[in-house]
Design a protein that fits this description.
Chain lengths: 241, 246
Amino acid sequence: MQHTLNRWPARLDLLQSLSGLLLVLFIWGHMFFESSILLGKDAMLWVTKMFEGEHLFGQPYPLLVSAAAAIVFLLIALHALLALRKFPASYRQYQRLNQHVGSIRHLDTTLWVVQVITGFLLFFLASVHLLVVMVQPDNIGPYASSDRIWSGRFWILYAFLLLVVHVHAGIGIYRLAMKWGPFSAATSGLWRGRIKLTVYCIVAFYLCLGTASLVTYMRIGAEHAPYAGERYDPAIHGAAR
Amino acid sequence: MNTIPVRQQRTLNINVLRHNPHDPESTPRMQAFEVEEADAMTLFVALNLIREEQDPSLQFDFVCRAGICGSCGMIINGRPGLACRTLTRDLPDTITLAPLPGFELIADLSVNTGKWMRGMAERLETWVHAEGLEQLDLDVMEAPMEPALAQQLYELERCIECGCCIAACGTAQMREDFAGAVGLNQITRFRLDPRDQRSDADFYQLVGDDSGVFGCMTLLGCEDMCPKDLPLATQIAFLRRRMVAT
């Protein structure tokens, strides 16, 4: 066998996993930053300024936020493109998968279908969210975000996105661990159980954290609704917090 | 006082998907049978009772009755398993049996796994590749092998090619050209074998695409439903890492 190897199938498989891993790490980190509102409006403002580079450059550059969102968007596009290869591609494949999943009653197989559905939903939900961040990077802050969420009714999008993205990320990271994990045959089952339990806990934690912060944004947004559009200024609003 | 609990004997309702594709008048249909359950009864015993006492035309395969030949794989209440290794006491009163999907149907519960396995073996070249095998003197003592390695090979060699991993795999059900856990397990088995002189690049040529190891979506049906409890998930993960590093 002296043919040159076509390494693309290996590269594509690795890239799909790596892009997925990066996106999971991003969303898990992102949750901590966006939930800074739970520590107060000033904490959220500090995080906003940090991402705009104000602490580093002395003045805010919202374009940095747009650039970060664009990178995440490209990463999602790459991941989606690679993951699409695995989607059922014809009616016959859909039919056979549907029949298989229905008859076999196997959790990990069913979870894959959940991943396909949540992945498909993320094409739309994540795109809308990222587009808003990309085109309105300066519209992020304790009042700006709260107004968008409540007065702009974006809470509908974020509530769906929260659930869908964490279910997708949780299943994805579990599958990644089983796909590449160097477990021995003897301990593989044990690790599988441990990882599954850990992922359940992580997903539950992030859903609670995300719900708490979303409700907080909604509450602030509702209170601030008469002044929607006004920006948070610690000097003016800080004392009344 | 007799304290041994006596189990109430059940009447099992066994529904079998019947069809003979070689009979032009046959159409797929479910046929119900009733069987009195006995202690330690396996599905294999129940099916034989049906064939002996109720319907001699019922077709299903078996050879060893001990989970070694891999002939009696079938779908038992939606999941693949070996009839000879399945105790009826572990099943509900109503049992539905169907042939393994993904294989050529011979008739009723009998499928041609042999044809599929041969095709897979020829495609993946699952035999020892070495120079000078033709000149090998079979009377000479074989080179010794480390017991740990021999044990590892033996562990993977326990595969009986029953086809349950193919029936349990969503990928194999969707994509007919997928080698499945049985094929990928055999590649790792020959990769481990010091008598096989093939390199990782050679193995990559055989399984380095979406019909091979990169087609596996880690649904883990194979691992969970292998009647021989083979470590299929770890073998596929190992092969994936090796093939990416090639």
